[in-house]
Amino acid sequence: MITDKKQLLLITNKQSMVDCVQEGVSMHFELTQANSLHTGFNIALNLLPDVILLDYSSFRSGRNFKNIANFKSNHFLTKAWLVVYAEERFRAEAESRFRKVVDEFIYSPTIEALCGKIIKMVYSNRSLSNFWKDAFMGMFNLISKPVLLLDQNEIVAMNDAFKQSFRVRNSKGLKLTDFVKCENVQKVKDSLRNFARGKHIKAATKTTLLLRNDKLRNARINFSKLNKNFGHQFVMFIDFVEKNEEINDGIGTSSEEVENCFKQNSQLTEFKFTNREKEIIELLIKGYKTKDISEALFISPKTIEKHRSNIIKRTNSDTILESIIYAISHDLIDYQKVQ
């Protein structure tokens, strides 16, 4: 998410420090906190912060602090300002160990003074703009084909070509699954999850996308991860194609799991509830609780919960109530029978 404020990633295991820094920099920075270097590194790859502030006293041991070099070795984070906050008595120790990989050490006596120094950095001659993020966003709208920046299913950013093709005015809160038919939502989520978790850096596939005027268009899609170690965020390029046009498998690396999943998405998905699922839905409509259903159908509460979970998943719902409404509105059960 792009805001007028700078992004500050604070890595500390002290909640008191988090609270003080939050209060001290809130006018100038969006604060994100991590309690370990490992977690902080993954967050940094996703957030691309302007400043990464590490609390030396939280991770002073060599074992806990040895991975600090990872932050500056990753090209997406080379423009982030890496700052270590330490007590004055640890100055020699900290600088002898980490001088080569840290941009600045701060030995302020109080957290308030620390916050003041960080804020001054924003207005100093040092540019804290994130080069990679700025460069990417600068080129984003020059691409003539629809392009998305995704954090798995969440749309982080979309270019002008995407907005025009899909007639999007307000992109806030949109997800990729908002542009597929409702019966394919779960399969799309699964394919994105598979790609994020898999070893492939690139994937190519073909599917059908839903435009805002309720028309369908076949599309060839190429995914590319921003970083092989953090697979949740990637770029998605869309190329609208005719029905008879096939993907060129020789381009990039093709992920079979993603491709197979999206092939299924392009087909209309029709399903019916099993007889047992219908029985459970009908009893739920009548107001039966789990215990009542268990006694009526002679099955265990655990089995009933499993059926409820399957019903929710298959209808792409968040609650069993939404699933019931879906079942009634799509004539998947005989509502008259349970009235």
From TrEMBL:
Domain of life: Bacteria
Organism: Salegentibacter salarius
Pfam families, per the entry: GerE
Name of the protein in question: Helix-turn-helix transcriptional regulator
Statement: the UniProt record of this protein carries the keyword Transcription regulation: yes
Residue ranges occupied by any HTH luxR-type domain in the UniProt entry: 266-331
Gene Ontology terms: biological process: regulation of DNA-templated transcription
Keyword ATP-binding included in the entry's annotation: no
InterPro entries from the UniProt entry: Sig_transdc_resp-reg_C-effctor, Tscrpt_reg_LuxR_C, WH-like_DNA-bd_sf
Keyword list, A-Z: DNA-binding, Transcription, Transcription regulation
Molecular function in Gene Ontology: DNA binding
